Amino acid sequence: MGPGRYGKRVITGGSHSIVGYLTWQDSRKVQRGRDSTVMLWSVHGDGRRVRDGELIGARERLSWPVMAGFGAQHVAAMISATILVPAAVGLPPTTTLLFSGVGTIVFLVITRNRVPGYLGSSFAFMAPLIAAKQHGVAAQLGAVVVAGGILIVFGIAVKALGVRLLESVLPPVVTGGLVLLIGLSMAPHAVRPFEAQPGIGAITIGVILLCLVLARGLLARLSVLVGVAVGWFVAIVTGRIEPAKIDALINAPWVGVPQFHTPELLPSVMVLSVPVVLVLVAEIVAHVKAVSAISGQDLDPSIGDALIANGISTALAGGLGGTGTTAYPANTGLMAATKVLSTAACAMAAVCAVLLAFVPKVAALIDTMPPGVVGGLGIGLFGLLGMLGVRIWSQAKVDLASPVTLMIAGAAVLAGVGDLTVSIWGLELHGVAWGSVVIVVLYPVVRRLRARRDNQGPKFT
Question: What family is it from (predicted)?
């Protein structure tokens, strides 16, 4: 059996020898020899069964019908927020849904199928776009395009300057704090809908927990989809769906084209997008770090690509009528809960979102998702994402006995959860932005001051 197929390959350099098996590039050649397709995902096991606790990697998949179920879970996790944000700021929801799907595909392509993620609407855009509402839709979209452009430049800078610089700016205490901050800052978006229908919310999260605890195999992996379905069904049979939304569902057409708009660049509105970029950077970095914690793989080299991809996605959305995108925290939490990191599931969710954008009837059906279901889902997934930040601290053995570390991390998280809002020179910054500034900027400064005082290396990491 020759080395070109399944044999060993020996690479000798200097005094060292590296013995490795078939590389991924070789497997692509073998696959081309078998048929004309290039394999993007290898089949995990037999493609039908998964052992409890077993991780499905980014480049793995199960059978396509099963992957469709995982994709449906991602749609259920992101759909309400992706529609809510544009509706709140006066932009067409179906257009945002379209570019949410397109942006996710762009994200998977640019990160070379290494980083699973779904790009949904970012809540960071709500405040500046509402403030710019008086200037019209075109001016609002201009702010979105500018934010995307700045993010692309930032991503290119991260790739050019290298991972080591990123590690010096974002040590584990910072990245863990960002993940915790992003997860817990979403609390109002879960608690408020839960309070509207606490019974439905309790049923939703209760079913999810029961599936995770008691079920085995695929039923446990599809726990979120089961919880959403049960909560939604209970809401229907108990008459908890808003009549106005039912009427909208009945009257919605089956086929329709999203509304497209062109942006206008107004300096007075463009400046509102500057603080949003900081939040987007924090959200993307937190997502990549969270996925790294789940998978046990070092994905730092992909952070630059992830930033560029989200910048392109945001610019595309703003260029034609949608709100800016980000790696949606609920989908990150979903990956942590199910241990399914397959990018195939994200790709299927993206295709589904694109199709839904042209089917107003289905979009109206999704809009009938009860607040209790949204709240129960959010409490579980956002909270789980927040705790991944604590896991990052634990794995990196961050010194949580240091009062400086505790105070800075605590202040950042509190600013995010409390949605601290302060205006500076006409720029309104909200909780996640302030929390990110505190932990990203203040922590390295304080660490250096402490090191200078002690005249030795940093005491806390």
Answer: Belongs to the nucleobase:cation symporter-2 (NCS2) (TC 2.A.40) family.
Measured distance CA(433)–CA(275) in Å, rounded:
7
User: Is the model's pTM score more than 0.90?
Assistant: no
pLDDT (tens digit, 9 = 90+) per residue, 215-272? 877 788 888 889 999 999 999 999 999 888 889 889 989 988 998 999 998 887 787 7
Q: Angle, nearest 10°, between helix axes 443-454 and 172-185?
A: 150
CA–CA gap between residue 183 and residue 177 (Å, rounded):
10
CA distance linking residue 96 with residue 394, whole number of Å: 37
pLDDT tens digits, one per residue of 145-189:
999 999 999 899 888 887 666 667 778 888 888 888 888 888 888
DSSP code per residue over 81-115: HHHHHHHHHTS-HHHHHHHHHHHHHHHHHHTTT-S
Other beta carbons within 10 Å of 161: 12
Q: How far is CA 298 from CA 110, 177, 303, in A?
A: 17, 18, 10
Q: 407, 147, 164, 406: which is closest to 298 by C-alpha?
A: 164
